[in-house]
Amino acid sequence: MKILNKIFIILSLLLLFANQNYAAETDAAEIISSLINSYDNILVQRGWHTTISGTGINAHSFDSTGKFLEVFFSINAKENSDILITVDSRQNSLKIKKTFLFHKNDTETNKSIEKIILPYLISLIYFKDQTPASSVYHSSITLGYYRTNENSDIIPDKEKGLFLLKWKFLKDPLKNIINNNSTLILGDYLDSTYSLTLNHNGDETFEIIDEFDFDIELLVYGHNYASGTEEHNVRNLYGWFSNIAYFRPYLKADKMLWDNEIYTDHVHVQYCYWTPASFIHNITRTDNGRSLFLSYELGIGPSQNSSITANGISDEEADQYDDKIFVSQWYRNHGFPRRKHNYYWSMAVPAKITLASDRYLNSRVEFKNEFYYFQSVFSKEVYDFYNKASFEYGYYITDSLIGGFCYEYHYTSGNSDQNTISPNRESHSWNRFNIQVEMKI
Amino acid sequence: MKIITFYISILLFFIAVILSSSTVMSAENINKKEININLINITEEDYINYYQPFFFSESFNVSRHYTYGNEIFKPATNTFNFFSDKKNINEKSYSLLSANAVDAQGSPFLIEWTISDGFSEDFRKKEALNFTSGLFLKSQKEDIKSIVSEEFQSSFNITNLTPVYPDEEVISSINGYEFDYRIKRTPTYYAVRTSSEILLSCGMGVINYYMNKYENKVDWQYQYSWEDAEKKVKDGWYWDPNNFNTNTIYHLYAGMAYQIARSNNYSMLESFAWSFGGSFMWEFFGEWREQVSLNDMIFTPMLGSITGEALIQTCDYIERNMKPGLLREFIQLAINPFGWINRMIDETNSGDIKVRLIFINPLQAAVQEKFEEELMQRN
Fold it and tell me: SS3 for A109?
C-alpha cells in the first residue's frame, strides 16, 4: 500500500512538472508568435513588404523618398524560472542585438513583454543607418550636336546641324545593393529618358524646341534578385511595367511631311503610346567595377500614331481625303482648313533589346534596337512599323564625364487600306550622327 | 374609494419617480471623479482657449489652480499638472509644454513637448494638448504603458520612435520614449482639399477652353439642356479627331489631378483613381458641349499618372540634390505646382514637434521624497 502511495505521489509530481514544462513551452511560443503577428500587422499597415519565416520577419520598404530600407529580425526565447528573449535585428547593413529578461511569475508576463519589446521593434523601422541619398536616383545630362541624312545614305550630309539635350533619370534604390531578393511593387522602380532638339534657326518657341521625345517605364510588379560579392555579382530585375512613350522627330524631307508647303511641322512618323502591360528584364553582370548589361522589353497598349502612307499629299488632295483612318476632312467640313491631321488610333506593340558594356577599356559601348508595330483599331489592313537601331560609344574623360558619339538608323514602313487615295504601301529610312558629352549628376 | 386609491397610487408613483431620479442624480455626483488641474505659467484665458475643450467631460469635476514658477508639480493621484515655458534651440524659438499625471495603477508619467514657434503654432499646441489630454483621460482607466503601446501601433503621426531603456545589458523594463510628432490631417480634410484643388484646376481648364472658344466649338454638339445631357449620355463615347498634341501632351497636364492627389497623401493607385475621376468630370462637365472622348478617358489619367509620378520623383531628386534656395523652389513649383503648394501648407502647419514621454519610477520617486523629508527635518 505504501509503495502504491509512493508511486502515486511520484507520478503526480511527474505529471505536475511535465504539465509545467509543457505550459512553459507554450507560453514562450505564444509570446513569440503574438509578437511576430503584431509586428507584421504594424509593418503591413505602414506599407512594408513582409515575409514571416519561423521566429523572424524579413521586411523591406522604400521610404517616402524612395530609399531602400530592409529590416530583419529574429526572436528567440529561453525559459526556466525567467524568460530570456534575444532580438537579433538588422537595418540594411547595421546589425543590432538586444536582450530582454522577464520574470515568469508575473501574472501579466505576456502583456508586459509586448509593452516593452514591441516599441523596440517599431523603432527599427525608423532608420539610424543613413545610406547616402545618391543611392536612390541616378541621372545624367547629355549635350550633343547632330546631323541627319533624311534618306538612306549612310553618311549624314545635312548642312545645318541641330543641338540635342537629353536627360536620363532612373529611380533604382536597389542598384547598389549586392545581395538582395525582393519583390517590388508599383513605383519601386522608374526609368525615364527625355530628349529635346534645339533648332537655332527657329523663330518661335516651338520652332526652337523642335523635336521632343520621352519614354517612361514604371514598374507595377516585379522581382529583383542580386547575388555575389562586391567584385563579382549578377543582378536580375524583371517584371510587369506600365510605360508611356512619345516621339515627334524633326524631319524636313518631303516624304516625311503631310504637305511640304502648307503643313511643314506635321511629320508622318510620330507616336504616343501607353502600354498597360510590358515585360522588361534587365540583367547586369559586374566584374571588378566593369559591367555587362542586357535588357529586353515587350509590351502592348493603345496608341495614337501617324502613317508614312499619308505622305506627299497636296492641299487639294487633302480636301478629298475623308477617311476615318487619317483624320482630315472632318475639320475642313467645320470651317477649319488649318486643322489637318494625319494619325490614327491603334494598338502599339513595342519590342526593344539593349546590349551594353561599361568601363571596359575605360569606355561605354551600347547597341540598341527599338521596334514598334502599330495596328489600327479601325481597319485590319492599316498598320505601320518603325525601327530604330543605334550604336553608341563613350569614353570616360573623368569619372562622371563621358565624351563620344552615337549613330542611329531609322526605318519606317506603312500599309493603308483600299479606302484611301494615298499609296497603299510606303517606306522610308534616314540616319543621324550625334557627337555628344554625357555628364552624370 | 377607488378614486382615492387611484390618486394615492399616482402620488406614490410620482414620489417614487422623484426619489429614484434624485438617487440617480446623487449617484452621478458621487460617481463624478474629482480632478485637479494645476496650471503653471498658464493664464485662465489660455486654459479656456486651449485646455478646456479637451477636459470638458461629464465624468469629471474639474478644479483648477493657477501658479507661476520654474518647476512643475510632482505627479499625484487624480491630478493633472501642466507647465508651460519658452526656450531657444539653435537660435530658434520653441514652446515647451510639460505635463504629468498618475495612471489607474498608480504609476506616474511625464510627457514633454518641444514645439516650434511661428506660423500655425496654435494649431500645433492644440494638437499636442489633444494628444496629452487623450492620454490623461485614458490613463484614469488603464495603465499608461498599454495605452502608449497601442498608440504607437495605430498612430501614423508618431515617427522616429526611440524607446529609452535602462542602461543595462539585459533589459527588463522601459523608462520611456522619444519620438517626433508629425501632424497629419484627417482623411476627410485630405479628400476635401484634393477635390477643391481638382475643381480649381478644372476651373482654370474651363477658362482656357472658353478663351479658345473659336477653335473648340468645332467639336460642340450639345446645348445646355437636360435633353442634350440625356443625349450625351446615350451617345456614349468616340475616338476624337483633335490635334495630335492636344490629345497627347496637353492631356498630360489635364492629368495633373494625379499629382494633386499624391501631394494629399494618397497612394499611387488611389491617386490614379482621383485622376480618372477628374478626367471623367472634365469630359462630362468641363466639355459639356462635346461628345465624350474615349481616347481622352484613356490617355488623360494614364499620361497624367505615369508622367505625374516621374515628375514627383524628379521633384524629390531636386529636393535632395540642389541647395535650398529660390531656384530650387521655383523648379519644384514649375514641375509639381500643387505638390509645392500643399507641401508649404503642411510644413507650416506641422512645424517641428519633439516629444519625450517618461515613466517616473515610483520607487525612485519615493526614495527621493523620503530624502527630501529627512533633509527638511534636519534643517
Answer: helix
CB pair distance less than 8 Å for A116 and B173: yes
Q: Least CB-CB distance to B320: which of A65, A112, A345?
A: A65
Write down the H helix ranges in A204-281: 205-208
User: β-pairing, A344-360 with A401-415?
Assistant: unpaired
The mean per-residue pLDDT over the stretch B13-19 comes to 62
Overall average pLDDT of the B50-69 stretch: 78
pLDDT-based confidence at residue A312 (cuts at 50, 70, 90): low
How many Å lie between the alpha carbon of A391 and the closest alpha carbon of chain B?
A: 27
Please report the sign of the dihedral spanned by the C-alpha atoms of residue B40, residue B41, residue B43, residue B47.
negative
Q: Report d(CA B309, CA B229) in Å as an integer.
A: 34
In percent, the amount of chain A with pLDDT more than 70 equals 71
Of A216, A246, A343, the CB nearest to B310: A216
More confident residue, A72 or A17: A72
Q: How far apart are CA A297 and CA B48, in angstroms?
A: 65
> Contacts of residue A266 in chain B, CB cutoff 8 Å?
244
Q: What CA–CA distance (Å, rounded) separates A140 from B317? A: 12
Collapsing DSSP states into helix, strand and coil, what is residue A187? Answer: coil
Residue B295 contacts A where some CB pair is shorter than 8 Å:
yes
Summarised one tens digit per residue, pLDDT across range B115-139 is 988 877 888 888 888 889 888 888 8
Grid cell for residue A82: 525567467
pLDDT digits (tens, 9 = 90+) for A87-112: 888 777 677 888 888 877 665 666 77
CA-closest candidate to residue B146, choices A114, A320, A307, A227: A114
Cα end-to-end distance, chain A, whole Å: 93
Which A residues in the span 172-231 are in contact with B, Cβ-Cβ below 8 Å?
186-187, 190, 192, 214, 216, 218
pLDDT tier for residue A114 given thresholds of 50, 70 and 90: confident
Q: Chain B: give the shortest CA distance to residue A429, in Å.
A: 23
Among chain B residues, the shortest Cα distance to A109 is held by B172
Chain B contacts in chain A segment 402-431 (CB below 8 A): none
Alpha carbon distances (Å) from A286 to A93, A168, A230, A364, B50: 21, 21, 9, 14, 61
Tens-place pLDDT, residues B251-300: 777 778 999 999 998 988 999 999 999 998 888 888 888 888 888 888 88
Q: How large is the average pLDDT for residues B4-26?
A: 60
Instruction: Locate the domains of chain B by residue range.
Output: 33-185+353-378, 190-335
**Nearest-Cα residue of chain B relative to residue A101:** B172
| Residue that is written with C-alpha cell 514562450 in the block | A28
Gap between the Cα atoms of B74 and A262, Å rounded: 88
B162 in Cβ contact with B148 (< 8 Å):
no
Q: How far apart are the first and last CA of chain B?
A: 82
